[in-house]
Amino acid sequence: MQHEKDEELYIQFAKFEQKCKEFERARVIYKFALQQLTKAQAQQLYKEYTAFEKQHGERQEIEDVIIGRRRFQYKEAVEMNPQNYDAWFDYARLEENDGSAESVREVYEQAISNVPPVNEKKYWRRYIYLWINYALYEELEAKDIERAREVYKQALSVVPHKSFTFAKLWLLAATFEVRQKDLKAARKLLGYALGALSWSGVFASLS
């Protein structure tokens, strides 16, 4: 295939520069190639670039390559299976540790867009924890209270409460409002959880 030829050409070009002791030129070629090829087209290229940086790079450059490799793997995993919520968790943690606030939000927004295909609680548990982690990130890390409030609001709106609900989500949303000293909002959330849904519909599924 053409992309395999392109990948091999970039690799050989970079290795030629390495043999000539032109390490910065080789680095530029690797980085340029990774920008030109898709993830699926550049697996061997990533391996070669990682080996190059381990041999010739500085510590930060090596760490950047490792992070890039992990990001590459998580993207592949969630593209193959968008309902792989564990992979989304790993991807979000990576961005929280090494990415920007924008990249963290982008990952969470992509993750929560993948709603479980069936209304059975067991398939929703990990999905709801993505929402919870997102809200906690906005409140505790990004310090964006309004965004955190909106995440809780959207999370509660997406749950099919007539089929099941999640006590933890209600309580976290309410205690969030308590931390913001908005007791009226907290009471409203708890009152809705207790009163707006039927006893058989809510309390049978609060576990």
Can you give keywords for this protein?
207 residues, Serine Threonine Protein Phosphatase 5, Tetratricopeptide repeat, 11 helices, 77% helix
Description of the structure:
The protein has 207 residues and is mainly alpha-helical. The chain has a domain at 124-207: Serine Threonine Protein Phosphatase 5, Tetratricopeptide repeat (Alpha Horseshoe), CATH 1.25.40. Helices cover 77% and strands 0% of the residues. It contains 11 helices and no strands. It has helices spanning 2-19, 23-36, 43-56, 59-80, 85-98, 101-112, 121-141, 145-158, 167-179, 183-196, 199-202. α1 packs antiparallel against α2 and α7 (121-141) packs antiparallel against α8. The longest helix is centred in the middle third of the chain and has 22 residues, at 59-80. The termini are far apart.
Map the helices and strands:
Layout (H helix, E strand, L loop, with lengths): L1 H18 L3 H14 L6 H14 L2 H22 L4 H14 L2 H12 L8 H21 L3 H14 L8 H13 L3 H14 L2 H4 L5
Helix pairs in contact: 1-2, 2-3, 3-4, 4-5, 5-6, 5-7, 6-7, 7-8, 8-9, 9-10
Number of helices: 11
Measured as a percent range, the helix fraction is over 70%
Largest beta-sheet details = none
Shape: elongated
Mean pLDDT across residues:
86
SSE topology string: HHHHHHHHHHH
CATH class descriptor name of the domain at 124-207 = Mainly Alpha
CATH architecture of the domain at 124-207: Alpha Horseshoe
Determine the strand fraction and express it as a percent band.
Answer: under 5%
